[in-house]
Input
Amino acid sequence: MYVRECDLTGDISPTFLQQALDDTGDGSQVPITFETLEASVEVDIDAYIGLRYALPLGTPYPPVILSAAKILALEKLYKRRGIADDKNPWASQAGQMRTLLKAISLGQSPLSPELNRQDPTASIITQPMRSTPRGRDAIIV
Output
């Protein structure tokens, strides 16, 4: 699973998390509720990523996947409480994350920096060399 319950508590209060997962209204959370949310987030992400990459992804998961899972889970928690998209504080970020996941699935953005980089970075630094006579320029790579 890409997201765990403890990953969300830094962004929402534990009280809201419990309320969002309490479907019976008795103040208790049914563990299966979060497991269902986890699975839903994973399916959403895999629907994009699976178009380009073999699933399941190996661990550790790329940071973009972990970030996407967290944001999509937070958006879904607000939706579970009936909060419309225009009032959902995570809807905009979730939309941006879906756009990024789509770009990854189309090969327009890498899943992680070392995979499928279209424009790898390179550095050339020139500076006077102090170990050669007359300060000739050198290329240090």
User: Anything to note?
Assistant: The helical segments are 5-8, 14-21, 31-49, 63-80, 91-105. The longest strand covers residues 125-128. The chain is about 45% helix and 5% strand.
